[in-house]
Design a protein that fits this description.
Elements lengths: L1 E7 L14 H5 L14 H22 L10 E5 L4 E6 L2 E10 L2 E7 L7 E7 L8 H17 L6 E6 L2 E6 L6 E8 L2 E7 L1 H27 L6 H7 L1
Antiparallel strand pairs: 1-5, 2-3, 3-4, 4-5, 6-10, 7-8, 8-9, 9-10
């Protein structure tokens, strides 16, 4: 399951004084952020944790549309490299967070690997700020198309239960896609459609192997000797 979230640290909403004094106590657990490097400022740590929670929530909604975003229920555990997990009850969501200048970008991949994930971030121009939702869609399609070597016309974004999905021409089904924008930044995360297709093939092969394995006890039963076989004919 894919989820991503982005925070523009230069946006006035992200400043040290933008949040009420009770915000951190209401949103974060005492144990969150303790393992993070002291190289990060309090403001950076706040939005590192927040973006990880938001990204995990978006991934959780793919499992159940009824999931409610209660930030304190999504507990972040990151190491000094900003990789780790977000816990919600007994469910664990692997996450990685990156800081690039004024941008904090969190990506969740429920498969515990980033190998099959495409993601990207870009700063918007002044003109693009008028419609960031449309810009992030175009940015995602252009980035994914370039990565896969296909024309943008071969890709489209659809929403299923208000959740964006990527559709690649000629393929069956949707590919998980997460879009986000805040302030002057836009970001996305997506399952790599080609890796996703390969994974589906691997799963089909695994199912076939499992089926053969299920039949194996019958095939491995020792047959009677020829003399006994003669009696059975």
């Amino acid at each position: 399951m894919i989820g991503n979230d982005i925070v523009d640290l230069s946006d006035p909403e992200s400043s040290r004084d933008a949040c009420h004094s009770r915000f951190d106590r209401r949103v974060f657990r005492a144990e969150e952020g303790r393992s993070l490097s002291t190289d990060y400022s309090d403001v950076q740590i706040r939005w590192i944790l927040w973006s990880a929670k938001e990204a995990a929530y978006k991934a959780a909604r793919r499992v159940s549309a009824g999931v409610v975003f209660s930030p304190a229920r999504f507990v972040v555990d990151l190491d000094r490299s900003l990789c780790g997990a977000v816990w919600c009850g007994t469910r664990r969501w692997p996450v990685r967070v990156r800081i690039d200048g004024d941008c904090v970008h969190a990506v969740v991949n429920g498969d515990e690997t980033t190998a099959g994930t495409l993601s990207g971030v870009r700063r918007l121009t002044a003109a693009e700020l008028r419609d960031p939702s449309e810009v992030v869609r175009r940015f995602a399609l252009a980035s994914i198309g370039a990565e896969l070597g296909v024309a943008i016309s071969e890709l489209r974004i659809e929403k299923v239960d208000r959740i964006p999905q990527l559709v690649l021409a000629g393929s069956v089904g949707h590919v998980e896609l997460s879009l986000s924008h805040h302030g002057a930044y836009a970001g996305f995360a997506c399952r790599n459609p080609r890796i996703d297709a390969a994974a589906r093939i691997s799963r089909r092969i695994a199912v076939r192997k499992a089926a053969r394995s299920h039949d194996a006890p019958h095939a491995s039963i020792s047959y009677p000797s020829r003399a006994v076989q003669g009696d059975l004919r």
